[in-house]
């Protein structure tokens, strides 16, 4: 069988795509397949996260994505993405979408992560007291490690730092 | 004992997903906005007054050949998605290949740190510091309640993905792997073959990673992944021992045959290499073969299609690649010193 595209080289890559029940088949040579971007699996995509888009759409089907007041489809006023678009591509348009679709996204995030509350790192700028609290937690972790490793000098340093921060927090 | 548990663990990776405040995410942004993101990241790293600024090298997807881009994917320095983004895909990679900052991938920034062996905490410390440095000049998209805002809600919160790449030949041979795959999924950890879920793992290499990014701290997430990794390491070692005790001749035969082909073949596909490599790596760990596992792991990266073509400095069609791959493997595996 010859390559569908160049019609010169033998077809070695056979590709089947089914979109909305319509099946298309392509038979391409190595070179044309590479040009079409169909050869990614040949390499070593160890760190490619598996596509979650389909799973996400499955989880979202029960949510309407309609504005309660206007009865219009939900839309992010910052980037223009609608909730329908998001359901299709599984990716949000911008950070403001989290606000625009919060009622829909909260149950979704709870389903994915089992929680809707961030307990991790806080950027310094967003910081405030919360950040200091987290920093103390982190230092306490380091302190424990230092004690385990019997690095007492470092442990003493960490202890002083923790005290200092706790004082700052108390102000 | 093996350094950093690398009889079982190939590498540990921490990846942080970050976005810049008030710029649309890469899937919808304009080319100009994409360029702005690149400029901001460049300024944050290369323009910083730190030693790091001299250690990073720029990789602009627009300017790289397909082979060069693919080679970065094979070295795990960028994702396949980023390598395809020749519009505004960009990366800053540290000269020792331990850190890469991918720009305009699924999120504006993906900070990644990979270290050999089981060293998630160390990887996190490095990624965390780079994150802090970037944050000095860039305002991240962040929400007090739900944390770092990401293009996909599966990464929101910490934006962290902690993964450990493990070689599990004995658990695969003894069929215990499916039990493990099923049980860990119940605690928000995924174990999958390198070709994605449900597929046979090529070279018996699997990836253990967290699925949950929100509601737990980075340390907790890392501890969970490391805890699961430690149990899997323990089970794999036990399975290796049992297997070798009970089926000494069969295992030695299997390892010997694999080594025989690797050291004498004339034509070899990537897939064949991966299968044989798994047996040879097992043989090296069990002391059946006198081959260093670091050497095998290095070879596994070198013989991937794009890297191989870079080594030979020429474009090769798949058949000629298979010939050169065999030639390269034979030469390296028979060499006594390191690669």
TrEMBL record, chain A:
Source organism superkingdom: Bacteria
PROSITE patterns xrefs: UVR
This protein's UniProt keywords: Coiled coil
InterPro entries named in the record: UVR_dom, UVR_dom_sf, YacH
Gene Ontology MF annotations: cadmium ion binding; cobalt ion binding; copper ion binding; zinc ion binding
PANTHER family: PROTEIN-ARGININE KINASE ACTIVATOR PROTEIN (PTHR38430)
Protein name: UVR domain-containing protein
From TrEMBL, chain B:
Catalytic activity: L-arginyl-[protein] + ATP = N(omega)-phospho-L-arginyl-[protein] + ADP + H(+)
GO cellular component: extracellular space
Keyword Ubl conjugation: no
Entry-linked CDD domains: bacterial_phosphagen_kinase
Keyword tags: Allosteric enzyme, ATP-binding, Kinase, Nucleotide-binding, Transferase
Keyword Transferase assigned: yes
Enzyme nomenclature, EC number: 2.7.14.1
Intervals of motif RDXXRA motif of the pArg binding pocket involved in allosteric regulation: 321-326
Domain of life: Bacteria
GO molecular function, one term: protein arginine kinase activity
Residues binding ATP, per UniProt: 11-15, 76, 110, 161-165, 192-197
Activity regulation behaviour: Appears to be allosterically activated by the binding of pArg-containing polypeptides to the pArg-binding pocket localized in the C-terminal domain of McsB.
GO BP terms: phosphocreatine biosynthetic process
Pfam families, sorted: ATP-gua_Ptrans (PF00217)
Residues in Phosphagen kinase C-terminal domain copies: 8-239
Function in brief: Catalyzes the specific phosphorylation of arginine residues in proteins.
Family the entry assigns: Belongs to the ATP:guanido phosphotransferase family.
UniProt xrefs under PANTHER family: ARGININE KINASE 1-RELATED (PTHR11547:SF38), ARGININE OR CREATINE KINASE (PTHR11547)
The name this protein goes by in its record: Protein-arginine kinase
Organism of origin: Thermoanaerobacter kivui
